[in-house]
Amino acid sequence: MLTLLRLVRIIFVGLRYRLDELLLSSIKHPLAHGLLRIVRFGRPPRTPRGVRLRLALESLGPIFVKFGQVLSTRRDLIPHDVATELARLQDKVPPFPSEQAAASIEAALGASPHVLFAHFETDPVASASIAQVHFAELHDGRKVAVKVLRPGMLAVIEKDLTLLRALAGLVERLVPDGRRLKPREVVAEFDKYLHDELDLIREASNCSQLRRNFGPGTGRENLLMVPEVIWEYCATTVFTMERMYGIPVSQMDRLHAAGVDIRLLARTGVEIFFMQVFTDGFFHADMHPGNIYVSDQPETLGRYIALDFGIVGSLSEFDKNYLAQNFLAFFRRDYRRVAQLHIESGWVPPQTREEELEGAVRAVCEPYFDRPLAEISLGQVLLRLFQTSRRFNVEIQPQLVLLQKTLLNVEGMGRDLDPDLDLWKTAKPYLEKWMRQRVGLSGLRQRVEQEAGQWVQMLPQLPRLVHANLMRPYIEPQMHDELQRMRRAQEHTNRLLTTLAAVLAAAVGVAIWALTRH
Fold it and tell me: Among 36, 254, 314, 463, which is most exposed with the fewest C-beta within 10 angstroms?
């Protein structure tokens, strides 16, 4: 009954924001066109379709807001105007009661927050679709931020996901372009993101890993600040971290007033992103302005601060090498190499004609290269490539879609800070240096150091293994005899088969002769 009522509510909201018109207009069928004329009669929609969809998702609650955010990252699947509008969805939703937050903390950690902490602010400082954040102070004086999961989220999510799967199936069957849009795969991707974000221990571990990657001794400690995880106050529904002090990266006036070098900040952001992707293979994948701050403290002025680690991306060594070579080939306008990389990766069918794929890549990239470098969007180039790749049945890897979405965020944030930011010029030296390290002597030394531990264990065993191999009986004569026996047996079998075939042929001949006699 509750599921049915929820479905009725969704239908009501859809009709209110004219999503029926949005759905019917995408179906290329005479019946759909007839229904479209009926629903448009007397009340044609005046609001753009993307705006109507965004408002509908906001009305349906936090889960649908989160779905809209995830959907906005799939610009390779949905129209550009809809994706741009959905990207405006913010993690600003009404907070749940503080009493419920306190009860959740007590259930997870075994004591009231007013006992666990020397001071706990009952009013949340931020509220998102999945959780909300309260400031607190530990008994040893450390300032912390306590993230609390919304109560009852799992049950709500499962119900809404069931409905979303059903809707995705309808879209796939009814909309002509439904199969290409892969609505069920998008819902499955959304399902994974949601369940990952519902486990705050997972988010805390992501935070801890990113902090270690930019911690003391890495040579990057002056680039990015990541809060320390307070593990004794963490559970699947509670995440306690060091409180960070800074200015949202989107608040330019405050950054200028604090004396932050904005141009340097823009270039540093690009460097941090490429470090995470190509050096670590582990990157913060939700880098919108709400999750990125800039320190305003005198001792750390101008350093980036990362928050919200629910969505991270990871890349294999193969992915990193493939991407780096692709980027460098783009920079050098070597479209044949781009086509070869796509074929070598196995992401296009092996029968794909290399010169045909090269021509398609050139048609995408060449118009951008004819513009001034400052006007070129690397993210948009990748987006166009993803769209063009459908023609060649390229299997877009989920981790690369997440990377492309993050790259668009980083590039947009960088251009907001410095309109003259040239992402290509900033990225190319880093990638060339990274490739030299991979294929040069330093890369060889690094890989030897990584394998040295295994070699240390194997080296003492080598004399014993060599001796055992040398003492092994000489088995070549036995093998020769065995092969001879097998050959003779095969020849004997062949003679038997020949004899049987001759007898059978003779019997058939006699039978035919007897029949013709009568």
Answer: 463
Assigned token pair, 60:
């349906």
| CA dihedral over 8, 14, 18, 23, signed as positive or negative | negative
In a domain, 342, yes or no: yes
294 shares its domain with 367: yes
In this structure, are 107 and 158 located in the same domain? yes
Domain contains 467:
no
CA atoms within 13 A on the CB side of 42: 2
Question: Residue holding tokens 């593990």?
Answer: 231
State the residue range of the domain holding 407.
Answer: 245-439
> Which of 244, 259, 279 is where one domain is finished?
244
**254 plus 398 within the same structural domain:** yes
Task: Reduce the DSSP state of residue 499 to 3 states and report it.
Answer: helix
Give the bridge partners for 224, in sequence order: 304
Q: Is 306 helix (H, G, I), strand (E, B) or coil?
A: strand
For 77, 334, 399, 403, the CA distances from 361, given in Å and listed in that order, are 19, 10, 21, 20
Which residues are within 8 A (CB) of 418 and not within 5 positions of it... i.e. 6 or more apart? 262, 263, 265, 266, 267
Whether 376 is covered by a domain: the verdict is yes
260 and 395 both lie in a single domain: yes
Digit-coded pLDDT (tens) for 87-104: 777 555 678 899 999 999
- Alpha-carbon span 29 to 31, nearest angstrom: 5
Backbone torsions φ then ψ of 91, nearest 5 degrees: -80, 50
191 and 296 share one domain: no
| Residue 30 located in a structural domain | yes
Report the alpha-carbon angle 277-409-347, nearest 5.
55
Q: Is 308 left (phi over 0), alpha (psi -120 to 50) or beta?
A: left
Catalytic status, residue 416: no
Which amino acid is residue 46, in one-letter code?
A: R
- How far apart, in whole angstroms, are the C-alpha atoms of residue 441 and residue 296? 41
Number of domains within the chain: 4
* Catalytic pick among 76, 160, 280, 286: 286
**Domain-ending residue, one of 198, 227, 244:** 244
Does 497 share its domain with 380? Answer: no
The string of pLDDT tens digits covering residues 364-409 is 777 766 665 556 666 666 666 666 666 676 665 656 667 777 777 7
pLDDT digits 0-9 by tens, 117-176: 999 999 999 887 788 999 999 999 999 999 999 888 877 777 778 877 887 787 777 766
Q: How do 224-225 and 304-306 pair as beta strands?
A: parallel
Rg, Å, the chain Cα set:
32
SS3 label, residue 422: coil
